[in-house]
Protein backbone atom coordinates (compact mmCIF):
# COMPACT_ATOMS: atom_id res chain seq x y z
CA UNK A 1 0.00 0.00 0.00
CA UNK A 2 1.23 3.51 -0.80
CA UNK A 3 3.02 5.11 2.15
CA UNK A 4 1.13 8.39 1.63
CA UNK A 5 -2.29 6.81 2.20
CA UNK A 6 -3.64 6.54 5.72
CA UNK A 7 -4.19 2.81 6.42
CA UNK A 8 -6.86 3.70 8.97
CA UNK A 9 -8.84 5.49 6.27
CA UNK A 10 -8.42 2.56 3.88
CA UNK A 11 -9.56 0.06 6.52
CA UNK A 12 -12.58 2.24 7.32
CA UNK A 13 -13.74 1.78 3.72
CA UNK A 14 -14.43 -1.92 4.40
CA UNK A 15 -16.63 -3.72 6.91
CA UNK A 16 -16.54 -7.38 7.81
CA UNK A 17 -19.72 -9.17 6.77
CA UNK A 18 -20.36 -12.07 9.16
CA UNK A 19 -22.79 -13.79 6.79
CA UNK A 20 -20.30 -13.93 3.93
CA UNK A 21 -17.12 -14.17 5.97
CA UNK A 22 -15.35 -11.38 4.07
CA UNK A 23 -14.90 -7.64 4.38
CA UNK A 24 -17.00 -5.72 1.88
CA UNK A 25 -16.52 -2.17 0.61
CA UNK A 26 -18.47 0.58 2.33
CA UNK A 27 -16.87 3.69 0.81
CA UNK A 28 -17.44 6.92 2.69
CA UNK A 29 -17.05 9.00 -0.47
CA UNK A 30 -18.19 8.60 -4.07
CA UNK A 31 -15.48 6.87 -6.14
CA UNK A 32 -15.00 10.00 -8.24
CA UNK A 33 -14.09 12.03 -5.13
CA UNK A 34 -11.38 9.62 -3.99
CA UNK A 35 -7.81 10.52 -4.97
CA UNK A 36 -5.76 8.30 -7.25
CA UNK A 37 -3.41 7.08 -4.48
CA UNK A 38 -6.39 6.26 -2.24
CA UNK A 39 -8.14 4.45 -5.11
CA UNK A 40 -5.04 2.36 -5.72
CA UNK A 41 -4.84 1.50 -2.01
CA UNK A 42 -8.51 0.51 -1.97
CA UNK A 43 -8.06 -1.64 -5.06
CA UNK A 44 -5.07 -3.36 -3.50
CA UNK A 45 -7.10 -4.27 -0.41
CA UNK A 46 -10.12 -5.28 -2.49
CA UNK A 47 -8.05 -7.56 -4.71
CA UNK A 48 -6.69 -9.30 -1.61
CA UNK A 49 -10.23 -9.77 -0.30
CA UNK A 50 -11.49 -10.96 -3.71
CA UNK A 51 -8.71 -13.54 -3.70
CA UNK A 52 -10.29 -15.20 -0.66
CA UNK A 53 -13.76 -15.51 -2.20
CA UNK A 54 -13.18 -18.81 -4.09
CA UNK A 55 -12.11 -20.47 -0.83
CA UNK A 56 -15.19 -19.11 0.95
CA UNK A 57 -17.39 -20.49 -1.86
CA UNK A 58 -15.70 -23.90 -1.61
CA UNK A 59 -16.31 -23.95 2.13
CA UNK A 60 -20.01 -23.20 1.67
CA UNK A 61 -20.26 -25.82 -1.10
CA UNK A 62 -18.72 -28.43 1.19
CA UNK A 63 -21.22 -27.58 3.92
CA UNK A 64 -24.07 -27.88 1.38
CA UNK A 65 -22.84 -31.37 0.44
CA UNK A 66 -22.79 -32.34 4.13
CA UNK A 67 -26.35 -31.06 4.61
CA UNK A 68 -27.50 -32.87 1.46
CA UNK A 69 -26.01 -36.11 2.82
CA UNK A 70 -27.90 -35.58 6.07
CA UNK A 71 -31.07 -34.79 4.12
CA UNK A 72 -30.87 -37.99 2.08
CA UNK A 73 -31.02 -40.02 5.31
CA UNK A 74 -33.56 -37.84 7.14
CA UNK A 75 -37.08 -39.19 7.80
CA UNK A 76 -38.29 -36.37 10.04
CA UNK A 77 -40.20 -33.81 7.98
CA UNK A 78 -39.43 -30.84 10.27
CA UNK A 79 -35.72 -31.64 10.26
CA UNK A 80 -35.80 -32.06 6.47
CA UNK A 81 -37.31 -28.58 6.18
CA UNK A 82 -34.57 -27.14 8.41
CA UNK A 83 -31.89 -28.88 6.36
CA UNK A 84 -33.39 -27.54 3.13
CA UNK A 85 -33.53 -24.04 4.61
CA UNK A 86 -29.87 -24.32 5.59
CA UNK A 87 -28.94 -25.43 2.09
CA UNK A 88 -30.89 -22.53 0.59
CA UNK A 89 -29.16 -20.03 2.90
CA UNK A 90 -25.71 -21.34 1.99
CA UNK A 91 -26.60 -21.21 -1.71
CA UNK A 92 -27.69 -17.60 -1.24
CA UNK A 93 -24.34 -16.78 0.37
CA UNK A 94 -22.53 -18.39 -2.55
CA UNK A 95 -24.59 -16.30 -4.97
CA UNK A 96 -23.76 -13.12 -3.04
CA UNK A 97 -20.06 -14.01 -2.99
CA UNK A 98 -20.14 -14.50 -6.77
CA UNK A 99 -21.69 -11.04 -7.12
CA UNK A 100 -18.99 -9.53 -4.91
CA UNK A 101 -16.32 -11.36 -6.87
CA UNK A 102 -17.54 -9.65 -10.05
CA UNK A 103 -18.04 -6.24 -8.41
CA UNK A 104 -16.45 -3.43 -10.38
CA UNK A 105 -13.58 -1.62 -8.66
CA UNK A 106 -15.58 1.59 -8.25
CA UNK A 107 -17.84 -0.16 -5.71
CA UNK A 108 -20.98 1.30 -7.23
CA UNK A 109 -23.97 1.08 -4.91
CA UNK A 110 -26.10 -0.77 -7.46
CA UNK A 111 -23.64 -3.68 -7.61
CA UNK A 112 -24.00 -4.48 -3.92
CA UNK A 113 -25.92 -7.66 -3.17
CA UNK A 114 -28.42 -8.02 -0.36
CA UNK A 115 -27.42 -9.40 2.98
- Spans of at least 5 consecutive residues with low confidence: none
- Evaluate the radius of gyration: 18 Å
Strand content: 5-15%
Helix percent band: 55-70%
Task: Give the secondary structure arrangement, pairings included.
Blueprint: H1 7-12, E1 14-17, E2 22-25, H2 36-50, H3 53-72, H4 77-101
Antiparallel strand pairs: 1-2
Helix pairs in contact: 3-4
Report what the structure shows.
The protein is mostly helical and 115 residues long. Helices cover 57% and strands 7% of the residues. It has a two-stranded antiparallel ribbon with strand order 1-2. Strand 1 (14-17) and strand 2 form a beta hairpin. Helix 3 packs antiparallel against helix 4 (77-101). The mean pLDDT is 90.
Brief synopsis:
The chain has helices at residues 7-12, 36-50, 53-72, 77-101; strands at residues 14-17, 22-25.
What keyword list fits this structure?
115 residues, mainly alpha, two-stranded antiparallel ribbon, 2 strands, 7% strand
